[in-house]
Amino acid sequence: MKRIFLGLLLIFSLGYSQFAKVGTAGAKFLSIGASSRAMGMGEAYVAVANDASSVFWNPAGLANLSGQQVYIGYTNWLVDTRVPALAYIRPLDAYSRIGIFLGGAYSTGFKETTLDLNGVSVTGKEFAYTGLEAGITYARYFTDKFAAGVNVKTVYEDFGGYTNAIGVAMDAGTYFHTGWKSLRVAMSLQHLGTELKPKGTYDLYILKGTDLVTEEREFRSYYLPMVFRLGAAMELIDNPLQRLTISFEATHPNDNLETYALGAEYTLINMLSLRTGYCANKDEGGFSFGVGFKTSKICLDYSFSDFGELPDIHRLGISLGF
Questions:
Q1: With a threshold of 0.70, does the pTM exceed it?
Q2: Rounded CA gap, 134 and 151, in Å?
Q3: 103, 75, 74, 77: which is closest to 88 by C-alpha?
Q4: Which of 157, 184, 231, 302 is the most exposed place for a label (fewest CB within 10 A)?
């Protein structure tokens, strides 16, 4: 266990050292929260993670699943962008879980333009953007208190058929029960991987006197939007009739400011869940709430996220257990 812990600590340290490089990352669809339950709790989910949607937040949380589970999620994102998510997790043995997952974003309606001495003109042709992540996941309890998980995935972006980029990345997470009441602490590092570089070349237009000349250039490579999450959660109330969970999470991305989230989930007779949370230090909004309805095999989740001056975000999720 010591070797495993030290290895994970090294991974987190290497990833965290990258955060000192302040700049703009690409493949930003990876930063869109895919779990409606997590977003309903204000993004304070890293230490709560215990369903199939955890693969998109903290893969170590998958070790908490008791059986097979499928998660299907959908986010109605900004500017008519559709963000689907899919995960299938199953037990490998009494302590291990394995699965596959797929996520992405699809946005249409972009207008093609051309540039000449008369300026910019629209050709009338439209194109779409597609982003995808797909991979496998593994999580395991190494002791009765400590679990760890890892995702290995391919990340792909297509820019309307003009060019595309592909790379490999990983996510890693830990989940630790402290032994004091129900308190657990967890951390995850997401989207640690190779830089993406679009294929091919493009023409750079330069005005020299009265002539518009072009220079052929290669596309620049860009980092993935890595993020380090650290959080804690516990139950204030936990009995057969009701359960109240509170959680806290701090995040450190490589392309933005740190955020701090506080969330809560109240569950009545293991059927109806009400959630709310607030994520501080965001550019817009921060408040969210959600609701979940659960039967023995199916759980339906909805969440609302306030985006301030921007359109609000709605998410739907369904978990199927069998």
A1: yes
A2: 10
A3: 103
A4: 302
